[in-house]
Amino acid sequence: MNDSPIVVLTALDVEYEAVREKLDAPQVHRHPQGTRFEVGRLTGSKCRIALALVGKGNQSAAVLAERAIAEFSPVALLFVGVAGALHTHIALGDVVVATHVYAFHGGTSEDDGFKSRPRVWEASHGADQLARHVARIRAWTGEVHFGPIAAGEVVLNSTVSAYARWIRQHYNDALAIEMEGAGVAQAAHLNKSLPVVVVRGISDRADGTKQTTDREQWQARAVANAAAFTVALAENLASEERDRARSKTNGAKGNTEMNGTTRNVAKDNARVGVQAGQVYGGIHVSNDRTAPADPTKAIAGLAARIQQARTAGQLDEDTYQAAQAELAAANEALLTTAPQDMGAVTLALKKVRGLVADVAILAAEVGTIIALLQGLS
Question: What is the mean pLDDT of the chain?
């Protein structure tokens, strides 16, 4: 199954750290040209993230976004950071997700004034739909707004400057202003099959009060909200990618089913036979035991079957190690707490079930053990 990461890019250290703290034991990945990525899974999730700091400006954002795409062949590319609000209905701390990105510096200077030659990139329909879904199903500190973002090469901190007037005149539907979205959007344009989403937390109002809002720690608060939304979006993107991969795998299995092996599985004292007009391939009759009544033995048996799944290639190494760690925690709670802390054991097993969800038979076995524990509590 595709284990390509989702690339997350940031411009500022505070943005980088807000995402990095959500990764479990990130590892450094060095690009031959010196760019350092950190790659790790979101804590408690199967979603892999490749994180990088691109610095300020659209040019560096474009170059490093393209570099990240070539290096990782990612599932998606997300840019997360802060921005200045351009409309009064958007509050400090709110999140803005770009439906369009305007490169507002494009134009030509003539005798009768400066003429706009705008460039605009639109978010893909699928990515936009998924981002809106995430906004609907989660609770956030602030609101989530969808609309255009203006990206240039200046920090706007005025409502009366030439740049401010220019944006109101030509891009008055833009919700926020920042400095990297156009570069990321250009990278998306060169890789059309790649979902790209720009997520911004509102840290100021681009109205001359930036120093005040920075002193009041709005930058950190805005970054935290944007990072939380980005992580939820990344998890959903990764989940959809796994669903697509499973669908392809199941489709391929279905096409070869008649040439394969027919398995009839009997549980407990049940017996099964084969009733068919024609039988293709081999026939195997086996017993599939349910989890034993002793939870310690049940967890030991589950650990062995998870190891078998890893050997068979059904689980990757990271998922296997994470699942075994949770099973060890469950065993420790059973053996060292008096009375046994069934809540801790159940919580660990639920984490295991999430990790092995791609292997249906393992997930079902974990569910059986959880039911056993609930019966004992």
Answer: 84
Q: Which helix (H) or strand (E) holds 243?
A: helix 218-255
Tell me, what's the pLDDT at 247?
72
Structure letter (DSSP) for residue 292: P
Strands 119-122 and 95-103: antiparallel
Residue 71 has pLDDT above 60, yes or no: yes
Question: Against a cut of 0.70, is the pTM above it?
Answer: no
Instruction: List % helix, strand, coil for the chain (3-state, nearest 5).
Output: 45, 25, 30
* Amino acid identity, position 230: T
Q: For position 284, what pLDDT does the model report?
A: 43
Q: Please say whether the beta carbons of 9 and 77 come within 8 A.
A: yes
Q: What is the pLDDT of residues 232-248, one digit of tens each?
A: 999 999 988 887 777 76
Q: Are 244 and 358 in contact (CB under 8 A)?
A: no
Residue with tokens 């602030």: 142
Section 336-361 average pLDDT:
79
* Contact (Cβ atoms closer than 8 angstroms) between residue 84 and residue 203: yes
Q: What's the number of CA atoms in the CB half-sphere (13 Å) around residue 324?
A: 15
Is the torsion defined by CA of 127, 128, 131, 136 positive or negative?
Answer: negative
Burial of 359 per CB tally in 10 Å (0-12, 13-18, 19+) = middle
Contacts of residue 340, defined as CB under 8 A and 6 or more positions apart, other chains included, come to 333, 334
pLDDT value of residue 1: 42
DSSP category for residue 12: S
Out of 114-123, 207-216, 246-255, 324-333, the most confident range is 207-216
Burial 121-141 (b: 16+ CB within 10 A, else e): bebbeebbebbeebbeeeebe
Report the distance separating Cα 225 and Cα 203, nearest Å.
Answer: 10
Neighbours of 301 (CB within 10 A): 16
Taking alpha carbons only, the member of 342, 301, 41, 85 closest to residue 208 is 85
* Nearest in space to 199 (alpha carbons), one of 175, 179, 229: 229
Q: Alpha-carbon distance 320 to 312, whole Å?
A: 12
Maximum C-alpha span of the chain: 92
Q: How confident is the model at residue 38 (pLDDT cuts 50, 70, 90)?
A: very high
The residue type at 370: I
